Structures are given as structure tokens and as C-alpha cells.
Amino acid sequence: MQNKVLGYLLKQLSSQRDWQYSITVSEWETDFLRFYNSQTNYSISKKRSAFDVAIYKDKRSYGFSIDNPNVQSVRNALKSTKKIIDILPQDPDYVDVETDKSKNLEKKKKNNIDVFPANQKIKILRQIAHEAQNMGFSIFGTFICNYQYSNIINSNGLDKHQWQSPVFLEIKAVQDSNQVTVLDCFGGESYASLNVDKIVKRLVQKMKYTLNELIDLNPGEYDVILSPRCIAELMLYLSGSMTAVSYDNKTSWFMDKNNKRVLPSRISIYDDPADKDLISFEYNNDGHIYRPLKLIDKGIFKSFMCSNYYAHKTGLPKNGNTGSCLILKKGDVSLSKMLTSIDKGLYISSFHYMNFINEKETSITGLTRDGTFLIDRGKITKVVNNLRFTDKIIRVFQNIIALENKYQIVPFSDNYEFFDIVTAKAPHVLVKKFNITSSTKTI
What is the pLDDT of residue 411? Predict the structure, then answer.
């Protein structure tokens, strides 16, 4: 049915000789399991088929999206386009849709919804819940498997295909007696990469830390160990300043810093869809091949991530990267050695509710969450109430003095409609002079 409707759409678009167009045909399926108080709360299975269409005429553009398309819905959308597109303002910077017709591997992937059926998900959750309950904790969270296919077609002859099957598991363990929380997670596309025993081991260690005394902490600058989740999230925020969009809007901290040293030589950040541990992407939304890209190499800023449109507008090199496969290169220091190097400081497990204060300066504020612990003379000794921090992301990276010799994969999920999932790869990092501004006096 979809092929018939797509054939009709292409025929109609081709008949409009002064139109250019780009179409993304997508099929998306999810199996979403939520668990609450160590029990399965609900399970959602959804499927969606859609056409996302962008049409260009005389430097004017108009787009529409159709869920579960049929000939009549396509006909109605095209009728509206003809009425509207001529009265829209022109975009003087528009040149052309994507022209690069070269293809990536286009490898079809195994559907992880079949690999992780409901009974397998529940089995994994029961194992984790059993360990948590032995320590007086209940578990909460989500276990998501998606299967996604997209076909990118445009008026320059592109016809490209990609498949993804991401898995997202996030577990929050809540202590029954005082409601202290700790968190762990997994993201990827490979069944073999999901090591439940390793997740349990990390959770159990954090749960043991929560049995210590609960304290407040005064504002000030502290030496901190940031978990892979924390530094990956900061890296994700910082990557927004490495886009051609931010360059064009003059909101990028990296303006005029190409090939200049911006961070210590120990810091390298890559966007690498070829990394087998990460959820991979073959193309960006334009249909340009998504290739490995050095963003910061040994402290030197190398590249802005740039789409077809912004390459024409800004003159930056087109690369098609989107920051969906970020890697902070690991170091050579063990986590235990990081701990023993701190006389008084903090271990921070997770951030929450972060917002930019000034995007160009990379200044940001947010809260710690799900396990903040005091480090005293090289050992984690107490639980700390959640804290507010205010700092510049670039300053945090400049103040990294050690990186762990191991990686952890960190998933991020947009759960509002399609449960889009991306992953990043990062080690623990040791940061000096991290700015704590206040205590929330709450867990």
C-alpha cells in the first residue's frame, strides 16, 4: 500500500517542473515497557508509517507530514501546498536539496523487538529487582526497543535507505527507607552488549554508598568525579556550539577557533557513527552519508557539523554530521586512582534540569540527581543532598585533569512521541574547581 501511495506522490511532484522536493518515508515500531515499584506498570506497542515532505519553489519552501498516508491524504496535502507556497517569503540562502548520491552500506538490522520480547524484558528486570530488594530498594524505569526504517528520496535523484534497532534501558533504584535514588542505564543495538551482571554490579555499589549518613554541602568550588552519564550530557550540550546553525546564529563559542587549541591535549571529542558500541546512523536527514568526524582532536577544535543548507549559507564544509554518536576519548587512569587522589570532593552520578544561561559562553545551570556522594580522603563516605551547580561547560572541560581508562555507553531518549534514542560514549572524568552554588536540601 505504501509503495502505491509513494508512487502516486512522486508522479505528482515530478509533474510540477518548477518544484524541488525531499521526501522521507519512515516506518517506526516500538515496544515500550515501564516498571514501577519493582513491578511491570504498563507496556505499549506502537507502529507508525509516515511521509515527511519538503517542497521548494523559487526559493520558497513548504513542508507537510502525513501519518499512515493514503492517496487522498497526499492529494489534500499537495492541494494545500499549491495554495500556500507562492505567498510564502523567499529564503535568499536556499540553493538546492542534497546532491550527493553516494550510498553507505545500507545494512538491514535485526529487529530488537524480537530479540527482547516482553518475557525477556521482564526476566532481566526481575533479576535487577531481586538484587535491589535484597538491599531495601525498589526499581523504577523504562525498557524500550525500537525498529526504524527510512527511505530518503529527493528531486536530485537520491534514493537511500537506512535501518536502526535501538535499545534503551534505564533503571532507577529508590531506597525504601529514605527515598535516596541511584541510576544506571544501557543503550545500543547489540544484544551481546547488554551485560545485566555489569549493570547490577554498578547499581549495587551505588546502593551501598546510599547507606551512609545524609548531609548538606556548602556552596563552593570542589574537585569532582563526574560519571560517564554526566560528562556525556555536558558533551551533548557543548556539541550544539559545534554546529553550523550556531555558527550562523553567532551563538557558537567556537567562532573563529578553527584549528586552535581550546582544551587540554588530553581532550578529544569525535562524532563516530562507525563505532560498533553506539547506535549507528548511515545518513543525516538530508540523505548525506554520516561519516566519522573529529570535532576536537587533542584539544584543538577541528570541525563544525554542517548540513547541505548551511554549507551553502555559511561556506563551511558539508559533512552531514549531527552529533548523534559522540565519543569523549578515554584516558589512562583508573576510577579507584581518581578517588584516592581527592582529599575532599564529590562523586556526581547524574544531572537534571539543565538550562543554558548564556549559550555562547556555554554557561549552564542545573541540579545533581540520583546519587551525589562526598569523597573524603580518597573514599566515598556520605550521601549529599541534591545540589545546584552553575558553570561554563567549556570551563568544565578545560578543568578535566584525568580521564578514566574505561568507557561506558550512555543512552539519551526523547520519549515525547517516537522514543528517538541516541548514544554517547564516555569515561569517568576528574574535574577541578566545579562550581556548586547551593544545596536544594532535598534528595
Answer: 95
What whole-number distance in Å separates Cα of residue 104 and Cα of residue 89? 36
Question: How much is the pLDDT for 434?
Answer: 98
pTM greater than 0.90 (yes/no) = yes
Complete DSSP assignment for 369-424: EEEEEEEETTEEEEEE--EEEEEEHHHHHHTEEEEBSS-EEEEEEE-SSS-EEEEE
Sign of CA dihedral 324, 330, 334, 340: negative
Domain ranges of the chain: 2-209, 214-439
- Print burial letters for 149-182: b (CB count within 10 Å at least 16), e (below 16): bbbbbbbeebebbbbbbbbbbbbbbbbeeeebbb
In this structure, is the dihedral angle defined by the CA atoms of residues 280, 282, 288 and 289, taken in order, positive or negative? Answer: positive
Residue whose C-alpha is closest to residue 152's, from 305, 21, 323: 21
Low-confidence ranges of the chain (pLDDT < 70): 1, 415-419
Give the pLDDT of residue 417.
56
Residue 83: all three cell numbers together: 495554495
DSSP result, 62-114: EEEEEES--HHHHHHHHHHHHHHGGGSPP-TT---S--------------HHH
Q: Can you give the pLDDT at residue 372?
A: 97
- Cβ contacts of residue 84 below 8 Å, gap of 6+? 62
- Asked if 376 and 404 count as a contact pair (C-beta separation under 8 A), the reply is no
Quote the CA–CA distance of 300 and 217 in Å, as a whole number: 36
- pLDDT at residue 55 in the model: 98
pLDDT digits (tens, 9 = 90+) for 267-325: 999 999 999 999 999 999 999 999 999 999 999 999 999 999 999 999 999 999 999 99
Question: 2-209: what fold?
Answer: PmbA/TldD fold (3.30.2290)
**Virtual torsion, Cα 360, 329, 273, 120, nearest 10 deg:** -110
Q: What are the start-end ranges of the H helices in 211-296?
A: 228-239, 244-249
* DSSP string of 174-195, one letter each residue: EETTT--EEEEEEEES-GGG--
